[in-house]
């Protein structure tokens, strides 16, 4: 039986994701929050409570909006439809993102059915990490590419860990230090191991919605996790970002999507 690679990634390596929190953990998915100050174009993003309960040493920050990519015909963000049984407050997931989440979960479960990965879990992470890839007014293209790359802050110390360049600037445009990249906010060192080609174009691109979601699925299912078990589900999300507040927010979004399809 084919299985995912088991790979121990330190908390400082993949725990440097962009963790964007919700103002509401009700069925309606709320406004995104962030620890630092957003650009003017992201005026809806405001600081979170720094005294919120945390696990480990998470670094919570907004991606800086830079490093433009060539524009092309794009997919206008639209609400998720009934194709996957989604309705109600889950509307607002762009169609391309919804399809990417569904495909990623289906492919992960085909390879490792014991993982029991739900697309709603991937969507919960996608919501917090990058607002489903459309943070800052970005647009998703039909092939999963994004109108502008999503880059986290330079990991050069201070309130961030120091992670010197590992990709020659290929994905983050920085040849001195690494940055988290794409809608799932992988740093290049982690992407090197977990990056997957989700849209079949022969390229593993962290700024592609299909690639990043399949890679996130691969990451969540690593180490033999069974996400039907609460303990393994907890470990999977903590591995993505070692913050109790982050785990609570991701699971709240996941469950809101599950309620919306009547699960």
The proportion of strand residues reads: under 5%
What spatial form do the alpha-carbon principal axes imply?
globular
What is the distance, rounded to the nearest whole angstrom, between the alpha carbons of the first and last residues? Answer: 30 Å
**Oligomer description:** single chain
Regions with little confidence, pLDDT below 50 for 5+ residues: 1-82
H/E element sequence: HEEHHHHHH
List the defining traits of the structure above:
mainly alpha; 7 helices; 30% helix; disordered N terminus
Write a structural description.
The chain is built from seven helices and two strands, in the order H-E-E-H-H-H-H-H-H. It has one domain. With about 260 residues, the protein is mostly helical. Helix content is about 30%, strand content about 0%. The protein has a two-stranded antiparallel sheet. It is globular, with a radius of gyration of 17 Å.
């Amino acid at each position: 039986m084919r299985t995912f690679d088991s790979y121990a990634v330190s908390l400082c390596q993949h725990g440097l994701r962009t963790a964007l929190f919700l103002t509401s953990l009700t069925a309606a998915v709320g406004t995104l929050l962030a620890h630092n100050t957003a650009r003017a174009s992201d005026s809806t993003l405001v600081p979170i409570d720094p005294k919120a309960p945390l696990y480990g040493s998470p670094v919570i920050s907004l991606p800086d909006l830079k490093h433009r990519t060539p524009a092309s015909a794009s997919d206008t963000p639209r609400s998720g439809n009934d194709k996957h049984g989604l309705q109600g407050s889950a509307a607002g997931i762009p169609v391309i993102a919804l399809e990417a989440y569904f495909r990623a979960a289906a492919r992960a479960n085909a390879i490792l059915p014991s993982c029991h990965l739900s697309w709603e879990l991937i969507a919960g992470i996608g919501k917090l990490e990058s607002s489903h890839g459309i943070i800052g007014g970005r647009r998703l293209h039909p092939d999963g590419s994004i109108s502008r790359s999503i880059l986290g802050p330079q990991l050069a110390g201070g309130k961030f860990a120091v992670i010197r360049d590992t990709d020659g600037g290929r994905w983050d445009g920085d040849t001195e230090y690494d940055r988290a990249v794409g809608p799932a906010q992988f740093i290049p060192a982690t992407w090197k191991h977990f990056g997957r080609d989700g849209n079949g174009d022969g390229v593993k691109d962290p700024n592609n919605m299909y690639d990043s979601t399949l890679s996130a699925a691969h990451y969540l299912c690593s180490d033999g996790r069974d996400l039907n078990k609460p303990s393994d589900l907890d470990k999977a999300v903590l591995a993505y970002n070692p913050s109790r507040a982050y785990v609570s927010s991701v699971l709240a979004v996941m469950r809101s999507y599950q309620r919306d399809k009547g699960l």
